[in-house]
Design goal:
About 30% of the residues are buried. The model has no long low-confidence stretch (mean pLDDT about 90). By secondary structure, the chain is an all-alpha fold. It is about 75% helix and about 0% strand. The chain has helices spanning about 1-15, 25-35, 50-60, 70-95, 100-110, 110-115, 125-140, 145-155, 160-175, 175-185, 195-220. The protein is globular, with a radius of gyration of 20 Å. The longest helix is centred in the last third of the chain and has 27 residues, at about 195-220.
Length: about 220
């Protein structure tokens, strides 16, 4: 049954895979062509992991002249989405029952938001996968893996911290001090990124200060 669910999920995620990039995806493609050490991360407001990955993926595609095609650049998101669905099945099966795992996987397979972000050339599909891997490692008490996935998620998107806080609260309320220690250990690598994060916040505040003026310009376009 899980194979049928995954087949359905794949079919739904292959639809529109070749459509043109929208603005954020186009920006991602431009940055992916750039050497990862030359990217202006302060202007993008995201951690660097997905940019490194997408740069490597594009370079691999360029070896066979498909590195700039929309469908090729979106393929990893499809792959990450399918793995997330399968892990949802496994986690539901371990925590509850086979039927719960199958039902949860089916719901995720047909979820519109997950379908959309599973074929977008951005980091959201990878983020979802890493967050689920965190919970899977936590449930199995594989603490080293928990630290690893926490670290990777913080370098993928800042929304990862919402997931990390929820895991921390769970470990605290269930008095799993060892797990909480490994969770904190997984946050330590992010300390290397804090200076850039502060610079991103400074850039964002500057842009916010420009919004009133931009609003005047954009409103003038309607009259």
């Amino acid at each position: 049954m899980i194979r049928l669910i995954l087949a359905l999920a794949l079919l739904l995620r292959l639809v529109s895979l070749t459509q043109s990039f929208w603005l954020d995806e186009a920006a991602q493609a431009v940055l992916s062509r750039t050497n990862v050490f030359h990217v202006n991360y302060a202007a993008d407001f995201q951690p660097p992991l997905y940019y490194v990955f997408s740069h490597v993926w594009m370079q691999l595609g360029n070896l066979i002249s498909i590195g700039s095609l929309e469908w090729f650049l979106r393929l990893p998101s499809v792959f990450f989405g399918l793995i997330t669905i399968y892990l949802t099945f496994l986690l539901g099966k371990k925590m509850f029952s086979l039927h719960v795992g199958l039902f949860a996987a089916f719901l995720l397979a047909i979820a519109p938001f997950h379908i959309y972000y599973s074929h977008e050339f951005r980091m959201y599909s990878l983020l979802t996968l890493l967050c689920l891997l965190c919970w899977n490692a936590l449930y199995d008490k594989r603490w080293i893996l928990l630290s690893l996935f926490v670290a990777l998620s913080t370098y993928t998107h800042y929304f990862a911290f919402v997931n990390i806080v929820s895991m921390g609260l769970f470990l605290w309320t269930t008095r799993q001090k060892r797990g909480l220690g490994y969770l904190v250990a997984g946050l330590l690598p992010f300390s290397l990124w804090i200076p850039m994060f502060i610079e991103q916040l400074t850039t964002a505040q500057h842009l916010v200060s420009l919004w009133p003026k931009w609003s005047m310009v954009s409103n003038a376009g309607f009259f």
